[in-house]
Amino acid sequence: MSVWRVEAWDLSPAYLNRRELLWAWHARGTTPGGRARLAAELWGRGERVALLPSGPVAPEEACLDPQRIAEQLAWLAAARRWRTPGRLPPPLQAQRLWRQHKYSVMARSPRRYRQIGREVAALPRGVLPTALALELSEWLLTAPTPGGLRNAVQHLWGYVAEVAPPARGEVDGWTSARLLRETRDRALHSRQPYLLESTALGELAAWLPEEEMDR
């Protein structure tokens, strides 16, 4: 697989490095929703970029190809020896893949979040099922509910709540956008490893209510 075929990239854009993200941004076939998700990932890395609403997923994006997913996983593993990595390191086993995606799934389905956690815990170390990568990639194309998004961001906030803590009770009045932005800023400042390896730190920004995106 050519690295520059990123317009057909199915895994999280968090695996792409900055050069690849920008290449995907300018690719002819990139849909408005795809561009919104790329912008959200750049935002999650602290880049100064305007967030775009994801909107409905285009039909050509909704049906992911398991073979292409497998090829991209294999490419990430093989290319790690020479390629500048993205925000997320290559997921060489199911446990890391799940850890990277768990809060993104929580934002969509707490029930499936719990189920996948049990399923992955039962897997032997060193395996990376394509079916798991496919499902997690599909969840990233699913709009979270407002309550689900808020719940996931609150869990993310818990990792950095003690970094420059705000006044007592102030957080309760923050919008989900403000809470995600404050979480991102503290995660980048403190280099919080768990959050920096979470797809949710970037991708959830594409699904914020439009009226909150600039707040």
Derived from helix and strand composition plus strand pairing, the structural class reads mainly alpha
Termini separation:
40 Å
- Helix fraction by DSSP (H/I, runs of at least 4): 40-55%
Average per-residue pLDDT, rounded, comes to 91
- DSSP, total strands: 0
Q: What would the principal axes of the Cα set say about the shape?
A: globular
Pfam family, one: DUF1722
Protein name: DUF1722 domain-containing protein
InterPro entries: DUF1722
Protein model, in words:
It comes from Bisbaumannia pacifica. The chain is mostly helical and 215 residues long. It has one domain (18-212). Helices cover 52% and strands 0% of the residues. It contains 11 helices and no strands. Helix 8 runs parallel beside helix 9. The longest helix is centred in the middle third of the chain and has 15 residues, at 94-108. The protein is globular.
